[in-house]
Amino acid sequence: MQNLQIAEVQSFTLANNQTSHWYRFNSQEEINQATVQRILQAADEAIARYGSFLIVLAGGSTPKSVYQLLAKEQADWAHWHVYHNDDRCLPIDHVDRNSKMARDAWLNHVEIPQDQIYDIPAELGNVEGAKAYAKTLQGVRSFDLVLLGLGEDGHTASLFPNQPVDNSADAVPVFNSPKPPAERVTISQSRLNDTHGVLFLVTGAGKQDAVNHWLNGVEIPATLIAPKCGVDVYCFGVKVAT
């Protein structure tokens, strides 16, 4: 894979004391390729250090493109452990399930052991699904890399604006989501912050208002993700300025 030259736009410490490092790309292809490189590098480093790589996946069109590229890569798949940051309470084979998308685009095409792919059982409903996933996450060490997106309203995972943040468990139910379906399961803010790396993928002009709020210090849900390591934001199609 081609080595891409990426330039850090700027670093900020704004709402919720989140430190964010913004990287601008010139095309969707560049951001996809750079994300694949970042994931593979993080995997190599984690496996060398811990003997395993723990990654948390995001849903959405940009992650899907990244997953399709990963399906063509060679990696030490036997040591990968794959989680999801959220999922919708829909039947397990529903086209809008994040777990189905990731499996179809990538996971069904590589040799990650099936017992190391941890789908959220959101088909059980948000309460029971969250209880089950919290049990799955119990005792799991810090994640190595968390992938996140940014909604036009500033949400990330299934942490939405103007909704109480539930940190009662590692995975929690979501009620009355402003985006259908209303019921979801999400990894909690505190557990998402228990990681060695965070990578936001932000693409498209429709995200500009959310980016503006973020960089102007507004406490949008994306700013709740504030691990000690800070967060990296790979962006294309938005302007980064304060």
CATH class: Alpha Beta
Number of domains: 1
Class derived from helix and strand content: alpha/beta
| SSE pattern, N- to C-terminal | EEHEHEEHHEEEHEHE
The outline comes out as: globular
C-alpha end-to-end distance: 34 Å
Mean pLDDT over the residues: 95
Poorly predicted regions are: none
Main-sheet strand order equals 1-2-10-9-6-3-4
What characterizes the major β-sheet? Answer: 7 strands, mixed
Count helical runs: 6
Annotated CATH architecture: 3-Layer(aba) Sandwich
| Rg measurement, Å | 17 Å
List keywords for this structure.
242 residues, alpha/beta, Rossmann fold, 6 helices
Short account of what is shown:
The chain contains six helices and ten strands, in the order E-E-H-E-H-E-E-H-H-E-E-E-H-E-H-E. With 242 residues, it is of the alpha/beta class.
What does this protein structure show overall?
The protein has helices at residues 28-50, 61-70, 98-105, 126-137, 189-192, 208-215; strands spanning 7-13, 19-24, 53-57, 80-84, 86-88, 145-149, 171-174, 184-187, 198-203, 231-236. Strand 3, helix 2 and strand 4 form a beta-alpha-beta unit. The strands form 2 sheets. It has a 7-stranded mixed beta sheet, with helices on one face. Strands 5-8-7 form a 3-stranded antiparallel beta sheet. It has a single domain (14-236), classed as Rossmann fold. The mean pLDDT is 95. With 242 residues, it is of the alpha/beta class. The chain is built from 6 helices and 10 strands; from the N terminus they run ββαβαββααβββαβαβ.
